[in-house]
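Annotated sample (chain length 89).
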Amino acid sequence: MAWLLFSNLGHYLTRKTISVAIWGVAEEIAGRTIEQHVYKLRKKLGLGTERGVTIRTAYARGYRLELCSETQTAARSATALTAHDGLHA
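Output written by the structure step:
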């Protein structure tokens, strides 16, 4: 799944596309199965806006690997630091 997402950076992949590519079946694989694989992929690779790469989920469209802009990443890092500093005040 990681290879599939990285090979299609910026493009939404439907559940059907993912299921055909990975399991070789056109039938709808249980939605929960794909969600669990995406969850585990995010966790194992440490994907998120703070790292600059995320997997976006869009209802009825699918999943998309995207690069976060430097502005978004910097703003989130600054917000996280401010929130962290507030905990120690």
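Annotation: The CA atoms of residues 2 and 45 lie 9 Å apart.
Annotation: Helices lie at 2-7, 15-23, 31-45, 70-87.
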